[in-house]
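User: Fold this; tokens only.

Assistant: Input:
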Amino acid sequence: MQLSNLWIFFVPPVAGGIIGYFTNDLAIKMLFRPYKPIYIGKRKLPFTPGLIPSNQAKLAQKISDTIMGSLLTPTELQKLAQRLLKTERVQGAILWLLKLSLEQVQAEREQKTARILGSVLQDLFAESLPRLLKVLARREDFLEAQINQIFDQILLDFQLSQAQARQFSDWILEAVLPVDSIRKAIIDFLTDRNIQIIDEGFREKSSGTYWVVANLFGLRNSLVRLRSFCLDEKEITNARLQELIISLEIRNRLQKWLQSISLQNLPVSTVRQLRKTTREAVRSYLQTKGLDLIQGLGTSVDWNNVAVIIINRLRASTTINSSLELVSQELALILERYLEKDLEQLVAQAIPILSIDQVIIDRVMATSARDLEVATQGIVKSELQAIVNLGGVLGLIVGLMQTVILLFS
């Protein structure tokens, strides 16, 4: 065999290895490339774009069906939701939200929360509460226990102190019954008719020495002269009445009488009746005038200022801060009990709303062919290179087999 003929035996394995290597490499690249279709005139070249870009919609649908059919089934989503919604995690989330809300309120400078709270309070006291009280006041037992408690613990035990009785008696003698008013009352009382009745009654009903005085002297002249004196001598009459008040110790007597006033001195039946009438009077007042009274109070109060005071108090309250954890724990337990019963139904309702399959399709469709290629090569780069190398090895083996056949032939 001549050396010039040896190339016949070496060319097949070398050519087979090169063809096998580059053919596999070309096939892998044609999965993604070209990224866009190539046209010659109006005709599109075959195999453009690559296999995956030309079938990206089908690929996206297939990936979505695979994930939703085997991975994200309703049962798996329910298990995932149960792991996510454990009591500890839910409590932590609620506590975080509560603290965030409190920090937002504390850092608020425009007092939006105060305005909202002021509107709520105004609506509550000026609109909702009056209507509610008017409806509740129609009930026979409305505020029965509360009024009875106030009556028994406050009114029944109420008694004026010495200082209060002193002030009250001073007010009566100076404002209600001044000496000039007493003088006018005497004048108004001593009419001719009243003088005649007093004189005749004294004459008829007196006896003994009083009968003699009544029938010989009578009271008519004395009462007429008293009336005339009060009319003609105003200053002197007022002075004499003032002297009588002092000498008779009217102020002290009135003070002692006011101090002795107490509902406990009344009979039990009278106290019970008084308590009943008090309750009925309160209920009747709320039915007739309570609506206007509460509405008037509600509109007269500066609720925005009240809301600011409340919020400022809440900001500085240590009780609010210390109770956030307890509140979050209670809310988490309530949510857990609710989810134990309705989690399966909620997951079934959430799957169509979330449209996870459509999200997967949209994400796959939004990914460019270049990004798909980079992602695929990043995951299975070594495997793809092994396929290319395997193609070269297989081509080399086929070439060697051809060389062996040539040798034997």
